[in-house]
Amino acid sequence: MEISGIISALIIGLIIGALGRLVVPGKQHLPIWLTLLLGIVAAFIGGWIGGMIWDAFLFVLIVQVLVAAGIVYLADGMYSKNANTA
After folding, report:
1. Residue-wise over 15-38: b if at least 16 C-beta within 10 A, else e?
2. Most-buried pick from 44, 60, 66, 81 (CB within 10 A)?
3. Is the model's pLDDT at 22 over the cut of 80?
4. What is the rounded CA–CA span in Å between residue 49 and residue 34?
5. Using one digit for the tens of pLDDT, what is the confidence trace for 34-72?
């Protein structure tokens, strides 16, 4: 991956994180900075998965949003349990 691809994945990851948060129903307990960080991770993972299946931009973007939603959902569940026990 070239440096331009990494920079674009970081920028798109911030947007993906926000979209992933919107896709998950209900109230999230994650701070916004953690959601955006998870979006960056999801952009790399979803881009890799989507690129392996079908290398079309819209398809990869949809996979990235779905991965972000899944990661935000799982992280929110773990974060809210930790917040309640502390």
Report:
1. bbbbbbbeebeeebbbeeebbbbb
2. 60
3. yes
4. 22
5. 988 998 898 889 888 988 998 888 888 888 888 888 898
Q: Is residue 65 within 8 Å of 20, Cβ to Cβ?
A: yes
Number of domains within the chain: 1
Q: Is residue 86 part of a domain?
A: no
CA distance 12 to 29: 23
Q: Which amino acid is at 25?
A: P
**Domain membership flag for residue 74:** yes
Which secondary structure element, helix H or strand E, spans residue 52, and what is its range? helix 32-53
Determine the Cα–Cα distance for residues 3 and 63; give it in Å rounded to an integer.
22
